[in-house]
Specification:
Layout lengths: L3 H5 L4 H8 L3 H23 L3 E10 L10 E14 L3 H67 L5 H36 L24 H21 L5 E14 L11 E10 L7 H67 L5 H35 L10
Antiparallel strand pairs: 1-2, 2-3, 3-4
């Protein structure tokens, strides 16, 4: 009953990732993306026909034929931009590319967080294994220390032999405290990422990815690709200033003119005006040219950055695959090392207890055995991290490969 709350609030890797990719940083990025979407809708609305209404009331001191003593007007006007040199569609393209870039950037952030959480998770498992091995090592050392103390009491061993064992126990306890600090640090880091206090359970692992070299672009590289399209659309939008703008307008006005001099009285009290308007900037001292060149150079800069990051990502994927193969070899090596260290320890322990070898040989074999246990567990967990890195570098959602 006392332990039940611990199990209820413990998280496996999938739960930790789900918790972390909904943190405040992700929410902030989502809100930024939503703001761009709203700006896009505003831009599209700006190109739809506009209806304006207004009214005016005026009192004139000196009445003239064009200014009545008292005048009231009300009007309604509809306007529409028929053609703006194609700028509208370039703006639409820029917004769509920006939204796509933001979407991929958001996915990149989530995937990056997933990789960090996965790394923390398996490093935590490795540290727990190191802690368990160190506790067992301390237990063995303390058992031997009790044994030597009994021998010291009857004079069959020396004080320096006992002190060597005491020193080993104390050193192991210091190492244990350092491991516990690393474990606590990982838990605090996960708390920082997820925004909640976490308690980790074991048992999660990563599915292996087939045909990693045939993967997609990473999400951050896709974001750069869409950003490149945005820059190109912005450059094209500046060129639209070379072309004319055509607008349509219809304005209906209702008048009420109160003249003291009735000879000034208008023969009508309403007016409707329909117009087609064309504006064309013929010369602006190179303003349009320089604006276009500025945006186009931004495009070229982004293109160079995209190509560089794309090539770097390809290299990162190849290195991740190579590291994975090395990781598998490390496990085989660690398994062989543990087998040898365990066999050597059993032999030396028996000889030590029978006084055939000194405690230096015993302590060395004990340390080698438990180091081999830790190394094997660390190698297994490290391989899971390497699998996660391959999935990340292949442009896949790491969250979908956690089991």
């Amino acid at each position: 009953m006392f332990l039940a709350p611990l199990f209820l609030y413990s998280q496996n890797l999938e739960e930790l990732v789900n918790l972390s990719i909904n943190n405040k940083m992700v929410n902030a990025s989502q809100q930024s993306l939503d703001s761009v979407k709203d700006a896009y809708e505003s831009s599209k609305s700006g190109y739809l026909p506009k209806l304006d209404v207004g009214s005016k009331y005026a009192i004139t001191d000196e009445e003239t034929s064009s200014n009545a003593k008292n005048a009231a007007t009300a009007y309604g006007s509809i306007s529409y931009t028929l053609y703006d040199g194609g700028k509208k569609y370039d703006i639409y393209d820029a917004y769509e590319s920006t939204i796509n870039s933001g979407t991929q950037s958001l996915e990149s952030l989530k995937n990056s967080i997933s990789l960090n959480v996965t790394t923390y998770y398996f490093n935590y498992q490795s540290l727990i294994s190191k802690k368990d091995a160190k506790l067992k090592e301390i237990e063995q050392l303390e058992t031997q220390l009790k044994r030597l103390n009994r021998f010291l009491d009857v004079g069959t061993t020396t004080e320096d032999e006992v002190q060597k064992l005491i020193s080993s126990v104390e050193n192991s306890k210091v190492t244990l405290q350092e491991i516990e600090l690393e474990i606590e640090t990982i838990l605090h880091n996960l708390e920082y990422v997820s925004g909640e206090t976490v308690s980790i359970t074991t048992g999660s692992n990563i599915k292996e990815l087939d045909n990693a070299l045939n993967g997609d672009l990473r999400f951050d590289i896709k974001s750069l690709q869409y950003d490149l399209q945005t820059k190109q659309s912005n450059a094209n939008a500046e060129k639209s200033a070379y072309l004319p703008t055509i607008t349509l307008n219809n304005t209906y006005t209702q008048y009420h003119m109160d003249y003291d001099n009735k000879s000034y009285q208008y023969p009508y009290n309403n007016q409707n005006v329909t117009s087609a308007n064309l504006t064309w900037n013929i010369f602006s001292f190179g303003e349009t040219k320089y604006k276009h060149e500025s945006k186009f150079k931004e495009y070229l800069s982004s293109k160079s950055k995209f190509e560089y990051e794309k090539n770097k990502a390809n290299v990162d994927l190849k290195l991740a695959l190579k590291a994975y193969e090395i990781g598998k070899s490390k496990i085989k090596s660690a398994q062989a090392n543990l087998k040898a260290a365990s066999s050597a320890y059993d032999v030396i322990k028996s000889k030590y207890e029978n006084g055939l070898v000194d405690n230096v040989a015993y302590l060395q074999s004990l340390s080698e055995k438990y180091n081999a246990i830790s190394q094997l567990n660390t190698s297994v967990n490290d391989l899971e991290i390497k699998k996660a890195n391959i999935i990340y570098q292949s442009g896949k959602k790491l969250q979908e490969y956690i089991k």
